[in-house]
Amino acid sequence: MKYSFTAATLAILSTVSAHSWLECTNHDNAEILGWMKGNSTMNPPLIVDPSLPWYADSCKGWPRSKKNPGNWIDESSNYIWNIGANSWNGGSFHPADTHACPPHQRSPTYDSNAPMASAAPGETIRLRFGGNGHTRGSNVPGGEPGSVSVWWKGKPEQEITDISEFTKENLLQTGGFADGSFSYPADPSVKSPLQGLVDKGNWMEVKLPKDMAAGRHMMVWTWAYSGQSPDPQWSTCFDVMVSGDAKSPISVSAKTVDATPEPVKATTAAPADKVAPVVDVPAPVVDAPKPVVDAPKPVVDAPAPVDAPAPVQAAPEVPAPAPDAAAAPAPQWTKWPENNDAVYWKEHGHARARHFQA
Ligand SMILES: *[C@@H]1O[C@H](CO)[C@@H](O)[C@H](O)[C@H]1NC(C)=O
């Protein structure tokens, strides 16, 4: 695998056109997918966004160093890793950084209420990532959503540290970025959020090998564009704790492992624990008026809420409003720029633009 100057240049450009990261490494989407479908057929349709904090309970496994509930602003600052741009060798001006994982995800670090996924050999884990409007190729270099892959060294306690380890031998599974997406409207000519596309749910079901040894398995999820830049572009790193006979973690036979389908241990945190981390997140996240996302506006008028729960920044000091505080004015979204990710950059201080007004 090589990253030519051309590819790197594309990659840098792509930082303002398309990015994604894993939000959850084992998502129980049965209930929420029903809600998403049901709400999408209402008139007007309501958006149900599974990345919002009040749906965090449906996430049963998390990437490294994640928060539960998550915070969109925080996540997009800390967890995205642009392989193409970072690995570009620009000499002393820009030395190549070929790490496979973002800085926060180079060791198996987990908060107690956001544990790694657990599974038995042969089971399926369901990864969830943001569509961010790219599900039908909008704002993606090449105009197609590209592919997602999971890389794994095949044994417990083995770390993929460098992009040179994205090899055929280490490839566990690959598929289309949008293979497991629920998006609407059905009209395929609707491609971008500005036209009304809603693609809040993107999933990748990863089938674990039946002969997987017990223990902690490190994995890397990547998104690659198609066409001119098919190399992994964005990554998220995570672990799966595989149950089984931990006394012989390396050489457990498939039969032995299958015979002891010891269920998930560490994942099931007490409900109280799940609520606690609100401390880590500005309280208004949870209390913030939901209308931004759930507002029954015609999708056409508010096409690009993307996945940015903007009130997070909008009202950090505002006391929690009464549940039905009719007096609190709902934030009004201004027109979003053509490029969704321009919003992201501005939110991160490059322009410090505000995209809503009271
Ligand atoms: C819409 O979503 C909510 C959850 O936000 C759910 O309670 C409700 O049942 C859904 N409605 C439909 C028609 O699916």
From TrEMBL:
Signal peptide: which range, if any? 1-18
In which residue ranges is the amino acid composition biased (Low complexity)?
A: 304-331
Residues covered by region (Disordered): 94-117, 304-334
Q: Does the keyword Signal apply?
A: yes
**Keywords in alphabetical order:** Signal
Name of the molecule in the record:
Lytic polysaccharide monooxygenase
Which species? Tothia fuscella
